[in-house]
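Each record in this resource describes a single protein on a pair of labelled lines. An example record follows, reproduced without changes.
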Amino acid sequence: MTRIQVTCPHQSGLIYVVPAERSWVCSSGQVPSHALAGFFGELTQLKDPKVVELMQSWGIYYRQLPLESEQAEGEQMESEQTEAEEGFPRP
């Protein structure tokens, strides 16, 4: 279990992250990141106006980033495309 304390003079709370059905793929050290990224990813995909409004009112935004494997794959494809284009005369 990981506890994340979120405290300021105006608010105070704990976020608990425990191994669950959807976090089995990660090591115990990665469960908090996996769970929070998955939760916010799915929450924002709901596109529920109430959720959007609540997140905006608290100034919380979430953007899904490419996985390292996807990023490396994209860079490899981009490199191969550039090499192929350089082999052909440009108009």
Remarks:
- The CA atoms of residues 41 and 64 lie 7 Å apart.
- The helical segments are 31-45, 49-58, 68-86.
